[in-house]
Amino acid sequence: MANNAEVILLDEPVAGVNPVYREKLEAIIQNLKKDKAILIIEHNTDFIEAVANEILFLNAGKIAKFTDYATLRNNEAVQETYI
To answer: Where are the alpha helices (DSSP H) in the chain?
Structure first.
């Protein structure tokens, strides 16, 4: 990564990406997150489930939930809106 950054910011990294490259990106992120902090903005919940340790869920620009994916998945409001 450029200049050995400690924090990596990704804005919708799998938008429009085919499943093969998505899996490759998942593997890259899994490897990078061992040494780096990674902030991902993403609407693809399957991708987030595969790579995220913690999730900050925003609703109308405000923090609605900060948790792990399993807990978020069980949130009724989140299910109705996103999952």
So the answer is: 19-32, 45-51, 69-73, 76-81
Q: What confidence tens digit (pLDDT) does each residue in 33-43 have?
A: 999 999 999 98
| Closest C-alpha to 11, from 36, 45, 32, 42 | 42
Q: Report the alpha-carbon distance of residue 80 to residue 19 in Å, rounded.
A: 25
Q: Is the pLDDT of residue 1 over 70?
A: no
The whole-number pLDDT of residue 56 equals: 85
Burial class for 77, CB neighbours closer than 10 Å (0-12, 13-18, 19+): exposed
Tell me the DSSP string of 40-54: EE-S-HHHHHHH-SS
Is this model's pTM higher than 0.90 or not? no
- What gap in Å lies between CA 64 and CA 71, rounded to an integer? 13
What is the pLDDT, as a whole number, of residue 57?
78
